[in-house]
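Below is our example:

___
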Amino acid sequence: MFEVNDIIVCSYGYNCHLVDFYKVVGVTKSGKSIKIRQVGEKLISHDGYGQAGYVKPTDEFVSEKVLTRKIHEGIWQPFVKVDDYSYGYKWDGKEVAFDSYD
């Protein structure tokens, strides 16, 4: 399940593949929800224009906003619905691909 300091990765997009990272800053008493804050991302490599490549999370928060999100049991792993358009999973520590081509 999720624990404090875990990193959540959210990828979303229709024509493009965008990525956001969140850090777990709390777990509710029931253990059914987590509290998350968005952290920045570090560009690891790109296509020369910054429109596609790989990113990793940083340790720096980009917002003071704390979101509480319910944990759902997925087929392969638990997840949280961060927004209407994005779902977050525990980050596996590997670089994450993105592209902002439209």
Q: What stands out?
A: The chain has one domain: 7-91. Residues 34 and 55 are 24 Å apart (CA to CA). DSSP finds no helices and eight strands in the chain. The radius of gyration is 14 Å.
